[in-house]
Amino acid sequence: MPAGGAEPLLETNCALLVDRLLGLRTTDAFASSAPPDQSAAPYFGHVYTDLEGRQWQELNLQALSQHQAFLGIGA
Length: 75
What we know:
Layout: E1 30-34, E2 44-50, E3 55-59, H1 61-65, H2 68-71
Antiparallel strand pairs: 1-2, 2-3
């Protein structure tokens, strides 16, 4: 357990390297959203459309951190 008694949020030892970021948005920045397709990977959440028509894919980091293909990737 980390110092201070807090438990790790995702309960796994992994990292996500992001080399480009368009920014973080709140739900107020989007015009609409749709749930993921039933055939979508379990780590895909809603698809949001912003006010300029661009689509953003929500990721469930807890589900992604448990996915074997993600855990098997090495840098």
